Q: What sequence folds into this?
């Protein structure tokens, strides 16, 4: 065989997957529903297997079980054979396999090379840039992506995105690849190319299993092994060229020139439950894969070894089986990715920074001079309330809306063992912290000056600190809501929680006027600590009497101390308020982490 670019890829250790009596039961409307019913089969290394069947047959469910993505409600045995046996779900099995989901879940703002390079740093322990670049080039060439190396993922075509998803998983060279509908959304030529590429990868010793919807006749014959599902059962497993005789044996004659794949799907989708049961028995009784399992086609361990030796000369000398030892290294890679993402997505950083600054000026015009005018003390109070609610909303809502999308990327990357969740979360937090502070700086600078607050650095800093903490707490709440529920419910719960906290925060109903229950409930609202801290920052610490303008007949609050006392905002010292808000920050970030962990398990 002529040596093409794909030959530069490594040849893997051979791993076969055997499943026995697999079943999956889910709860639906308080009833148990069996989706997969006693499925048995073998997926061999060196083979490209297609799981096919009519819509709703259970293809994706079976794949989810084989990958270990679906754990609850699963019964039966799955074994992975490599001399010794490994169970699915074990860390060895996870190390040896990867799952490429139907949707690509790529971050649009990174180029193909950048995403490949950062993934290389996350997945393998090799440190040298030159070696990693060689590896990336060889994989990109293999998958025909070398021409789009410097294109951002958001600008790639569907087929290129799909190939990039495969390329990312090939970095650590797993012997087993699972793909959910890799050809969906591709035209027939791209679909054929994609399947041809998978076949070549399989021939290098990998075990490749994918679900496929309705392959053309030419594509159907590219598969080494097809596994047909109907009504949760396996109705045929064997070589694609054996399907016509198999169906003929059961009295279904495939018309001449008819695509056998289409005919098989027509028969199985129209078949009665009794016929499906008959097919299921026949599928296990006879070995229909034998015709392709001739000695010539079989990729034996020995042959794999020979191929490995002959391929090694044009392959970068990188041990791809070793993961990075240090989580610190992984953290740095993830943090850099977060910063680049923030910088390139103009809606995350640049737009928000400008809008915060402009809103500060707008509030300055609305609440003009209220910072030092004794006749406008209550207006100044309203200005701070507006600021607290504004900063809370603008941090909480985007997090609640965006996080469900990010969750899919995290789920994919975490499932394929790119990183530990706690390392990702630490990097996410470390990137969010300066962002929230920057946003608070932008808003506070313009609003503070425009409303004529006292021009003392210490007071400005105290206001800034509380504004930053508000953003941090609110964004933690947003992540928590975003990881637990969908965006619509997330924003709904976010709005409810904000209004509830607002109502007991001591602004709309002053603390001295609150009933005892609500007074104590106000401790649950970080708004009350924020307001108390903000007012103390500008009116506390021996601030001089406020000036009552000459054209005013009477100014109610010229004494800052009296103002704080009457509003009940002098109960706790400023730094205790800061301590409480910091406590809420830690609490919500921890809750967000555990809700994220919970959601990843149950997504
Ligand atoms: N969590 C669940 N709760 C209830 N029913 C489910 C659940 N997951 C899957 N099902 C049902 O199980 C059946 C098989 O679903 P599955 O997604 O595996 O089918 P499929 O063969 O991949 O279909 P398609 O080709 O349309 O994607 C479907 O009828 C589906 O509605």
A:
């Amino acid at each position: 065989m002529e040596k093409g670019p794909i030959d530069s890829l490594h040849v893997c250790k051979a791993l076969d997957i055997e499943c026995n009596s697999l079943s999956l039961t889910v709860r639906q409307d308080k009833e148990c529903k069996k989706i997969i019913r006693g499925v048995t089969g073998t997926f061999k290394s060196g083979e490209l297997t297609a799981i096919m069947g009519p819509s709703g047959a259970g293809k994706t469910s079976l794949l989810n079980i084989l990958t270990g993505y679906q754990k609850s409600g699963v019964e039966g045995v799955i074994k992975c054979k490599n001399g010794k046996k490994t169970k699915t779900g074990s860390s060895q099995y996870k190390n040896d396999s990867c799952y490429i989901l139907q949707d690509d879940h790529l971050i649009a703002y990174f180029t193909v090379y950048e995403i490949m390079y950062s993934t290389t740093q996350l997945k393998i322990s090799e440190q040298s840039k030159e070696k990693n670049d060689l590896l990336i080039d060889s994989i990109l060439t293999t998958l025909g992506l070398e021409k789009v190396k410097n294109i951002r993922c958001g600008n790639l075509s569907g087929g290129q995105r799909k190939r990039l998803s495969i390329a990312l998983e090939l970095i650590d060279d797993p012997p087993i690849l699972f793909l959910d509908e890799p050809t969906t959304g591709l035209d027939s030529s791209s679909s054929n190319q994609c399947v041809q590429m998978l076949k070549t990868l399989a021939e290098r010793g990998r075990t490749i299993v994918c679900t496929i919807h309705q392959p053309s006749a030419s594509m159907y014959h590219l598969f080494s092994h097809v596994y047909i599902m109907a009504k949760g059962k396996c109705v045929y497993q064997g070589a694609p060229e054996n399907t016509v005789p198999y169906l003929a044996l059961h009295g279904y004659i495939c018309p001449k020139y008819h695509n056998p794949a289409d005919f098989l799907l027509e028969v199985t989708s129209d078949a009665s439950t009794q016929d499906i049961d008959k097919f299921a028995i026949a599928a296990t009784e006879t070995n229909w894969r034998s015709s392709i399992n001739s000695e010539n086609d079989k990729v034996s361990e020995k042959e794999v070894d020979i191929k490995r030796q002959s391929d090694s000369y044009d392959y970068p000398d990188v041990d791809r089986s070793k993961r990075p030892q240090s989580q610190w290294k992984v953290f740095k890679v993830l943090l850099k990715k977060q910063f680049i993402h923030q910088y390139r997505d103009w809606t995350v950083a640049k737009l928000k920074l400008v809008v915060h600054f402009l809103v500060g000026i707008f509030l300055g015009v609305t609440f003009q001079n209220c910072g030092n005018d004794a006749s406008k003390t209550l207006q100044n109070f309203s200005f701070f309330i507006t600021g607290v609610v504004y900063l809370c909303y603008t941090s909480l809502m985007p997090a609640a809306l965006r996080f469900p999308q990010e969750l899919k990327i995290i789920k994919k990357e975490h499932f394929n063992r790119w990183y530990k969740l706690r390392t990702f979360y630490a990097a996410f937090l470390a990137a969010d912290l300066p962002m929230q502070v920057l946003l608070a700086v932008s808003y506070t600078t313009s609003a503070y000056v425009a409303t004529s607050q006292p021009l003392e650095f210490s007071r400005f800093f105290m206001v800034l600190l509380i504004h930053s903490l508000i953003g941090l707490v609110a964004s933690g709440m947003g992540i928590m809501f975003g990881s637990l529920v969908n965006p619509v419910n997330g924003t709904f719960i976010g709005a409810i929680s904000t209004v509830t906290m607002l109502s007991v925060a001591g602004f709309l109903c002053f603390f001295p006027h609150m009933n005892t229950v609500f007074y104590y409930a106000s401790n649950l609202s970080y708004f009350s600590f924020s307001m108390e801290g903000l007012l103390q920052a500008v009116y506390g610490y021996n601030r001089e009497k406020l000036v009552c303008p000459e054209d005013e007949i009477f100014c109610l609050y010229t004494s800052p101390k009296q103002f704080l006392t009457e509003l009940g905002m002098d109960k706790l010292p400023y730094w205790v308020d800061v301590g409480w808000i910091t406590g809420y920050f830690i609490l919500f970030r921890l809750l967000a982490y555990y809700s994220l962990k919970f959601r990843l398990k149950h997504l």
Summary: Confidence is low (pLDDT under 50) at residues 1-11, 292-315. Residues 126 and 319 are 7 Å apart (CA to CA). Residues 26, 28, 33, 35, 53, 55-61 surround adenosine-5'-triphosphate (CB under 6 Å). The two ends are 44 Å apart (CA to CA).
